[in-house]
Amino acid sequence: MRMLRMYIAQQCFGLSDEGIEDALYDSQTIRRFVGIDLGRESTPDATEVAP
């Protein structure tokens, strides 16, 4: 489910794999939508986002 939400955020904002990785660090709103809590886990890097 998390990867689907990352894909949706990528499409909505026109982000590359590296762009969504950066956005997850920079935007609390995108992290909340995707379901990532930086206090408990790390964000997937760009190589994990690409299929």
Detailed description of the structure:
The structure is a single chain. This protein is mostly helical. It has one domain. About 65% of the residues lie in helices and about 0% in strands. It is built from four helices and no strands. The radius of gyration is 10 Å and the shape is globular.
Keywords:
65% helix; 4 helices; single chain; 51 residues; 0% strand; mainly alpha
Structure summary, number of beta strands: 0
How many helices in DSSP terms? 4
Name the beta content range: under 5%
Radius of gyration (Å): 10 Å
Element-by-element helix/strand order: HHHH
| Relative helix content | 55-70%
Quaternary form: single chain
Write down the domain tally. Answer: 1
Q: Which runs of at least 5 residues are low in confidence (pLDDT < 50)? A: none
Largest sheet, described in full?
A: none
Mind sketching the topology for me?
Elements: H1 2-13, H2 17-26, H3 28-34, H4 46-49
Helix pairs in contact: 2-3
Summarize it.
About 65% of the residues lie in helices and about 0% in strands.
